[in-house]
Design a protein that fits this description.
By secondary structure, the chain is mainly alpha-helical. It is elongated, with a radius of gyration of 22 Å. Its main location: membrane.
């Protein structure tokens, strides 16, 4: 090669903003952040009435998210991001590899983190609802639960809370690790909904955001029934 010949570099793929997270998913995410923080504060301050109401709101949100994961936008659906454990492990092997962010939705490992957080939120809010009704003698079905099971549910509520805080901490640390080690900003798309992706990648299909009011209404109705009878 001639020393004076200019070095040609491979052309970078053309990127354009793509809507990867719909409004219901983003709203759910940030409402959970606010409500879990509020649950922690009210617990520490012994504001039990507020703590219970926050737990009920969280349960309604979790139920709505589970339904949206079945009928919502493409990236919100569980079938689009729940990968095999082997795929998650393969992804984690390259955790420190600095490569372009072309992921549409959750990656293989992130999908399992979503499932873990949803499961812990569901266990925590359901057990908390029972514990409150049992103590306040509000739920007519509480008296049908044997003492050993009632004690187990109370223990589970405390254990699930500790596990939830640990999982949230891990989640935050991984987001920071992605920013430092891989140069991937995972927060911005969850705020704006958009990510810069190569034009060769198709935009995910979106479900009209207003339809999310239906699963939210179902979640609220289920919580009202559980609060009245559990």
């Amino acid at each position: 090669m001639d020393a004076n010949e200019p070095v040609t570099r491979p052309a970078q793929p053309v990127r354009r903003p793509v809507l990867v997270w719909d409004a219901p998913v983003r709203l759910f995410h940030w409402l959970v952040v606010v409500l879990v923080t509020a649950a922690y504060v009210t617990l520490k301050l012994n504001w039990i009435d507020w703590h219970v109401r926050i737990g009920e709101a969280l349960l309604a949100l979790v139920i709505s998210r589970l339904l949206w994961g079945c009928f919502g936008s493409e990236t919100a659906r569980f079938r689009s991001f729940v990968a095999s454990p082997a795929a998650a492990l393969r992804h984690l092997r390259h955790l420190f590899r600095r490569d372009p962010d072309v992921q549409v939705g959750h990656n293989a490992a992130g999908g399992w983190m979503v499932l873990l957080l949803l499961a812990l939120l569901l266990v925590e809010t359901l057990s908390g609802l029972y514990v409150n009704n049992d103590i306040a003698d509000e739920g007519p079905l509480s008296e049908w639960v044997p003492v050993w099971l009632a004690n187990a549910i109370s223990t589970l509520h405390g254990l699930a809370w500790d596990m939830l805080l640990a999982a949230v901490t891990l989640h935050v640390l991984v987001i920071a690790l992605y920013a430092v080690a891989k140069g991937h900003n995972l927060l911005r798309p969850m705020l704006t909904g958009y990510k810069l992706l190569p034009s060769s990648i198709d935009a995910p299909r979106q479900t009209p955001a207003l339809l999310a009011l239906l699963p939210l209404g179902v979640g609220a109705a289920v919580v009202m029934l559980l609060a009245a009878y559990l």
